[in-house]
């Protein structure tokens, strides 16, 4: 009896040790990841400012930062993994929608359609994303290091109130600007008859994506408002599991 109790204690200790090692590893990885992402978005911010100061126009700005933007925005897919394996307490669905919509904007809209890269709306969402991500990743970094300046916490949970809708406006206007071009060229579309017997119209796909902002965006926005109340005002919020 005594020996089995001891075994239980040893097992518990081993489990606790494993958990501690796992959480130390997770914290180390998250710290590295957040520092890298803060640096990436800072590089983007500086590149955009330098371009605008040197050229005095936004025309050509997207092309000049496209590579860095594609890299760092695509890398954010890792965040869906963080939620899936449980190293951050965030919903896979909320993070998945956020990250996938950004990746879609970058790869399948702005990068894929050169003709819209100089639209003002592209600059609008780029500036908004950049400010958001510098604030967000530096918040996570300082939080993990237990040295969080209040102004970063404040910025993380207040700026989104204005930036989120502005970002959505920039994204929707950009997709809207792409529609005539997509319709004219039939890009990314498959018309019948073809050997796969499948038809796909990218033009209508873009319209569906635009419409999907109506149910999805409020959910992300209200999620952030709940996070704000929890972090800034200490409210206990029970969220449904995914
Ligand atoms: C295939 C095509 C699909 C198309 C679909 C189209 C529809 C799209 C509709 C929606 C459109 C959205 C468009 C987006 C536009 C913009 O982004 S505009 C810019 C403004 N945006 C924002 O301000 C939002 C930014 N986004 C986010 O903040 C996140 O993506 C989020 C998922 C919404 C954040 O949620 P969440 O993670 O739950 O909140 P937090 O409070 O930040 O974190 C919760 C806890 O998790 C910890 N944590 C999370 N990530 C990390 C990390 N990387 N490192 C360390 N810790 C992390 C965090 O600290 C919190 O911990 P606790 O406090 O202990 O709970």
From TrEMBL:
It is a multi-pass membrane protein. It comes from the Eukaryota. This is Very-long-chain (3R)-3-hydroxyacyl-CoA dehydratase. The chain crosses the membrane at residues 26-48, 122-139, 159-182, 202-222. GO terms for molecular function: very-long-chain (3R)-3-hydroxyacyl-CoA dehydratase activity. Belongs to the very long-chain fatty acids dehydratase HACD family. One of its GO terms (cellular component) is endoplasmic reticulum membrane. It catalyses: (3R)-hydroxyhexadecanoyl-CoA = (2E)-hexadecenoyl-CoA + H2O; a very-long-chain (3R)-3-hydroxyacyl-CoA = a very-long-chain (2E)-enoyl-CoA + H2O. Catalyzes the third of the four reactions of the long-chain fatty acids elongation cycle. This endoplasmic reticulum-bound enzymatic process, allows the addition of two carbons to the chain of long- and very long-chain fatty acids/VLCFAs per cycle. This enzyme catalyzes the dehydration of the 3-hydroxyacyl-CoA intermediate into trans-2,3-enoyl-CoA, within each cycle of fatty acid elongation. Thereby, it participates to the production of VLCFAs of different chain lengths that are involved in multiple biological processes as precursors of membrane lipids and lipid mediators. The lineage of its organism: Eukaryota, Metazoa, Chordata, Craniata, Vertebrata. InterPro entries: Tyr_Pase-like_PTPLA. Keywords: Endoplasmic reticulum, Fatty acid biosynthesis, Fatty acid metabolism, Lipid biosynthesis, Lipid metabolism, Lyase, Membrane, Transmembrane, Transmembrane helix. Pathway: Lipid metabolism; fatty acid biosynthesis. GO terms for biological process: fatty acid elongation; sphingolipid biosynthetic process; very long-chain fatty acid biosynthetic process. Its EC number is 4.2.1.134. It comes from Amphiprion percula (Orange clownfish). It holds the Pfam family PTPLA.
């Amino acid at each position: 009896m005594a020996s089995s109790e001891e075994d239980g204690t040893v097992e518990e200790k081993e489990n606790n040790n494993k958990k501690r090692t796992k959480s130390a590893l997770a914290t180390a990885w998250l710290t590295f990841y957040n520092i890298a992402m803060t640096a990436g978005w800072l590089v983007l911010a500086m590149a955009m400012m330098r371009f605008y100061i040197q050229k005095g126009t936004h025309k050509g700005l997207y092309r000049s930062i496209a590579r860095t933007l594609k890299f760092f925005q695509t890398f954010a897919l890792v965040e869906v993994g963080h939620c899936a394996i449980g190293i951050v307490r965030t919903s896979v669905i909320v993070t998945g929608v956020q990250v996938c919509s950004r990746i879609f904007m970058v790869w399948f809209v702005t990068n894929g359609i050169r003709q819209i890269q100089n639209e003002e709306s592209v600059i609008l969402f780029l500036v908004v994303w950049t400010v958001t991500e510098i604030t967000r990743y530096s918040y996570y970094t300082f939080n993990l290091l237990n040295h969080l300046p209040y102004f970063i916490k404040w910025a993380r949970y207040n700026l989104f109130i204005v930036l989120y809708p502005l970002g959505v406006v920039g994204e929707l206007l950009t997709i809207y600007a792409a529609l005539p071009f997509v319709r004219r060229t039939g890009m990314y579309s498959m018309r019948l008859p073809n050997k796969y017997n499948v038809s796909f119209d990218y033009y209508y796909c873009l319209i569906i994506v635009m419409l999907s902002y109506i149910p999805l965006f409020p959910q992300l926005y209200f999620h952030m408002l709940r996070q704000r109340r929890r972090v800034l005002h200490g409210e206990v919020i029970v969220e449904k599991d995914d």
